[in-house]
Amino acid sequence: HSGARPGEQRAAMEFTDLEPNLQSVASGGHVLNCQEISALKAGLALMKSQEQFQQVCFWGKVFGATADYYVAYGLKGGDFEFPTKHFFFAGKDFQFSALTAPTPEEAVRLVELCGEKPLTGVASTALEVAEEEPADPPDEPVPEGPKKLTEVDRLAQLVLEIDFDTSCVPRGAFCLDADHAIVASKDFKGLGSSDAMALTSYVHFRAPVSIAALRSLARKDAQVHGPHILDGLDSDQPKGCWALRKDPTASLVTLRSLSWPGYIAFHAPETNKFGGIYFGYAQKDLSLPFVL
Known about the structure:
Layout: H1 18-24, H2 34-51, E1 55-63, E2 68-75, E3 85-90, E4 97-98, H3 104-114, H4 151-165, E5 168-170, E6 174-176, E7 182-184, E8 202-204, H5 211-218, E9 242-247, E10 252-257, E11 263-267, E12 274-280, H6 288-291
Parallel strand pairs: 1-12
Antiparallel strand pairs: 1-2, 2-3, 3-4, 5-8, 6-7, 9-10, 10-11, 11-12
């Protein structure tokens, strides 16, 4: 199973708990079928043991024109402050391969080459027109140019962008331990019903960038300021980019990103159950600031 000890909290969307968590986000309009779930569990269990991850979480499904990508990430212990998310992807064979973050220069080239074009679903698709080889090979070795970018580089960039803007968890679900590492809080029993309906009660599960969170993290008594060490959703731009609603049928709160349609997070108040998932074409709603 997941290796979690009794009473220990699991990370959001840990792959061993896939079915109940998928039911919690079904209001987003997407589910996985039985074959996908069983193949994912097998593929992710293999990835977890090969890469020796402490935890593996299913991140989502990115739709392409001809095929789709399944995305997951692994967490290892021992990182200072924020644990590094190691992202992986698979196609319909469910054999997961690492996604490597593009360099800042490559990220700029990816935007210039692709703009808002949808993904094809074929990871090896070349994004740049190959230059023709000269008929006579030159005598001197030709210096290698920049790396030829493929769709897998673009997928990595898009996943990182989406994750940065979403990755929503309840405030207080993670805390700083004695080694100054951000870990799941064993004391977290869930948000109260009214708190669960406030956007200020949710934070991003990623390395913080806001001055306020970084200041809390740098304090000598940072453990006391645990709830404030991660960036809050309430300061996300544009204002109104999160839709928060209480499910009338169940004691469940869902948060949908309007910036990245297809991302949905959930929390069951007064329990330590929460998670988030993305199902979509990896296209940001650029019109949102003009609509709100």
